[in-house]
Specification:
The chain has one domain (about 1-145): 3-Layer(aba) Sandwich (Aminopeptidase). By secondary structure, it is α+β, with helices and mostly antiparallel strands. Helices cover about 30% and strands about 40% of the residues. Belongs to the acetyltransferase family. RimI subfamily.
Length: about 140
């Protein structure tokens, strides 16, 4: 499995993954284009020429946000999400971030366990954050050292 920087040509390949993983909350291709154009840090995981997952990070000043992480369902449970979170945290440190924050759906226990294992702590709840479904999001934060 290779993890590399996301490029514009990956967007078409990640669309079906985005729809499968996030359904009604899926980002449009234009949203990914915008993220790349803004200089945000996105990764893709590629195995045998196919995308297995992707993740993104935005850094502004000393604050960073993990925007999204997706792993193809058949590839889950093998440490790929963990590896990408670690890479995003390393990038946040390189860019001088003091904290990293994220939102995660209240009903996404596997993702919450992953973030807990990296030392993220819940600091709040955004009611109805995921607009298409009305699902609440936990806000989690990690202090970087």
């Amino acid at each position: 499995m290779e993890i590399e920087r996301m490029r514009w040509w990956h967007i078409e390949a990640l669309e079906p993954i985005e729809r499968e993983v996030f359904a009604a909350e899926a980002w449009s291709p234009a949203m990914f284009w915008s993220e790349l154009a803004a200089g945000h840090h996105y990764l893709v995981a590629v195995e045998d020429g196919e995308l297995a997952g992707y993740a993104g990070l935005a850094v502004t000043g000393d604050e960073a946000w993990i925007n999204n992480i997706a792993v193809v369902p058949l590839r889950r449970g093998h440490g790929l999400g963990r590896r990408m979170v670690g890479d995003l945290l390393d990038e946040a440190r390189r860019r001088g971030a003091a904290t990293v924050a994220l939102e995660v759906a209240v009903d996404n226990a596997p993702a919450q366990r992953l973030y807990d294992s990296y030392g993220f702590e819940q600091i709040g709840v955004r009611r109805g954050y995921y607009q298409a479904t009305g699902t609440d999001a936990l806000v989690m934060i990690k202090e970087l050292s």
